[in-house]
């Protein structure tokens, strides 16, 4: 059995994305939900076949993954006058640094960590917030936030051991404090404010928390402990409270880098459509635009099923209220009608 937090850490994706994927698997009978606080999932006999049917999506593991927490590859020095080299994330994918305050973004985040300045990254899902944080901090510990996250998920709780007794297992917050690691609150604004309050003493001058459930133990943060958070403003239930916002002195908007999408050899027409929709989204003409994640998926689909199917799928993944507008823009770009990807007549 695995929680969303554990799966997100192993698979290298945001907690929101992993949670949604798990719920999709459950709805198809390809996984089973066995707990709610935190959300726990386990594989079913259909999980393996689902993984074979979609080889680009990692399956839900059926057994724990041993070994130390994965780390990112140290960044390579940029050639004189050249661009910074890509950084390898824990899942093996490359991260291409972007500009932030006249620095590579990974370098800017590392300097802010050294100065003890907490950072909140905000923007639509799929724009690369988690990717940037994983690239910047090789020692990252991630909490996949959602409405079910409890204080125990952060601090720790008693768990039954093999002998039938109970032992207290520290949570990611305590582990990060003790080891001096960076802690990512992914989808932080989905977590209840009452739960987040348990974190705040660790972020202020005290740098301490009291674990009431474990004999009132006091945990003091080691050097290097750092908190960074991600916020998806458009996600239902995501609320950036004043108490949370005040803890993050630097707040950075993250949008999709469409120039990067073009350099990754993603279909030029797809990138042009995405730019057009992004412009319309900023103007309030449409509520959705494909982000870098969707464009990368577009190219994978095009390589497997063809460009026509990839564009049809792009229309189909748009929210229902925006689908007609997206279909109209894609149709105009291609010069032929395009509708959502759907099954045809029996062969």
Give an overview of the whole structure.
- The chain is an alpha/beta fold.
- 38% of the residues lie in helices and 18% in strands.
- The chain is built from 15 helices and 16 strands.
- The chain has helices at residues 4-11, 15-27, 47-53, 105-114, 129-136, 151-155, 172-179, 193-196, 200-203, 242-245, 258-263, 268-282, 292-305, 307-317, 320-334; strands at residues 2-3, 31-36, 39-43, 87-88, 94-95, 99-100, 103-104, 119-122, 141-144, 156-160, 166-170, 182-186, 208-211, 217-220, 226-231, 250-253.
- A five-stranded parallel beta sheet has the order 9-12-15-8-16. Strands 1-3-2 form a three-stranded antiparallel beta sheet. Strands 4-5 form a two-stranded antiparallel sheet.
- Helix 12 (268-282) crosses helix 15 (320-334) and helix 13 runs antiparallel to helix 14.
- The longest helix is centred in the C-terminal third of the chain and has 15 residues, at 268-282.
- The radius of gyration is 21 Å and the shape is globular.
Structural Rg? 21 Å
Helix segment count? Answer: 15
The coarse silhouette is globular
Tell me the structural class: alpha/beta
The share of residues in extended strands comes to 15-25%
Instruction: Give the uncertain stretches in residue-range form.
Output: 54-68, 70-80
Strand order of the largest sheet: 9-12-15-8-16
Query: Describe the biggest sheet?
Result: 5 strands, parallel
Q: How many β-strands, per DSSP?
A: 16
